[in-house]
Amino acid sequence: MALFPRQAEDAVNNSIATLKQLQGFNAERVKRNAPAIQIGVGLHTGNLMLGIVGEQERMQGDIFSDAVNLTNRSEITLNKLTNRGDYHTRFLGKVQVKGKDVPISLYEVYDGDAEPIIELKLKTKADFEEGLNDYFEKKFAEASVCFTKVLKVNPADKTARLYLERSAQFMVQGVPEDWEGVEAVEQK
Q1: What's the Rg (C-alpha) of the chain?
Q2: What CA–CA distance (Å, rounded) separates 25 from 20?
Q3: What is the DSSP letter of 155?
Q4: Which of 74, 104, 89, 61 shows the shortest CA–CA distance to 8?
Q5: Alpha carbon distance 148, 164 (integer Å)
Q6: pTM score over 0.85
């Protein structure tokens, strides 16, 4: 965990740099026949309390905050960026976190991906976004067509595959009356 008290760009740029460094590190690991290390970076913006906890023999710094518990690729952080257009982003959907009343919008900043992956996500961005719009409007057949187009260009796009599978499931099983496209997250 890291704190960036000044600007949202500090957190986003550090995350991108970390992922780029990992690419180089993994290239060396692959040369030694070692498995690549995969990580994800989640960002959220909010207030927190920083303090020392423990007792005389064992003390440590800790952070207490609802914002820490909600760390993800949050719209709140993106809205704090001075030049949001400097980053490659895409909307991933909304989640309802257990114990919270308001869903959180999730976004992906993919500038930390390898250059070929960035290019694939840029090529498929329009189809991906159209698929999401159709999905949230309960047009699952149309959404399936869009996500299939994305996967033809970028077969490794896990998010497009997930939405394709969900669309197919809703076409077969139907949609609950109160469905709004928000996924419930029960655990971290």
Answers
A1: 19
A2: 9
A3: T
A4: 74
A5: 7
A6: no
* CB neighbourhood size of 44 (10 A): 19
At 85, the amino acid letter reads G
Q: Identify residue 58 by its one-letter amino acid code.
A: R
- CA 74 to chain CA centroid, nearest Å: 8
Q: What is the pLDDT of residues 99-149, one digit of tens each?
A: 777 788 888 999 999 999 999 999 999 999 999 999 999 999 999 999 999
Encoded amino acid at 68, one letter: V
C-alpha dihedral, 126 to 127 to 129 to 134, nearest 10° = 140
Provide the greatest CA pair distance for the chain: 62
* pLDDT for residue 167: 96
Q: Cα separation of 29 and 37, whole Å?
A: 9
Handedness of CA 136, 140, 142, 147 (dihedral sign): positive
Residue 145 half-sphere exposure toward CB, CA atoms < 13 A = 6
